[in-house]
Request: fold
Amino acid sequence: MPSQPVPPATWNRPGMIPTLNDTGFMFEVRDSFTNDFISYAGQTTLPVLELGCAYGVASIPALEAGARVTASDMEPRHLEVLKDKVPPHLLGNLELVVATLPQAEFPAGRYGAILCSRVLHFLSGEDIETSVRKMAQWLAPGGRLYLVADTPYGIWRKKIPEFEAGKAAGMRWPGMMVGLHNYIAADPPPKPTEKPPFMNVLDPELLARTCTEAGLEVVEAAFIPRPDFGGFGQMDGRENAGVLAVKAG
Ligand SMILES: C[S@@+](CC[C@H](N)C(=O)[O-])C[C@H]1O[C@@H](n2cnc3c(N)ncnc32)[C@H](O)[C@@H]1O
Reply:
């Protein structure tokens, strides 16, 4: 039976569960976009999809709210841990799918809501666009798309000058970072690592643009404060970005 992974001692903070594939952490503290997805999942009669679900931060509460849930992640070991945590009486409402964005495929028009939280910043701009266009296809008419991503204003604060200069110069994807140890606001800085090989931090405007270009109507796009992202010094309330967009009914 797979057990829950334990964070390395230096990162050992309550609610931060490390991924098994060097894609950061699942945070057990949920933001308002994720909570809205869970609440809507309990209302819609259609199934819902969580992409990059890790150990089920939203999938399990959505199941508990009465939803039929497809929980998907590129890492099969995450899905094994998730399955282990689901109360047996809810397993019949759970589908587990190993899939990697942007190659992932799901049936068109199937889902009442999709959540993709803290995953898109691992993709290039082109792959973000492909992924969000696909998500728009997977939604039923009237369906809701919830996206959450890291910004340069949280733990990646050393990226702010490049990000803002890039935006001012009209760069389409100003948040691309290669050599992540150069950008993380950790003291002392971590050793150079090649995993993940890059990150592409975003903001509400970039998320909203991507949804609009995918044919969705943006209902809300906002920064998300994450004071629980501990150990990285002073935060300013713009640590994550979120968007809620809907498909025309
Ligand atoms: C930082 S964790 C976020 C977990 C959770 N969604 C949250 O918000 O706390 C990133 C998760 O996305 C998955 N992931 C990363 N890149 C992915 C991709 N291209 N396609 C599918 N899943 C991906 C990882 O395996 C990991 O479980």
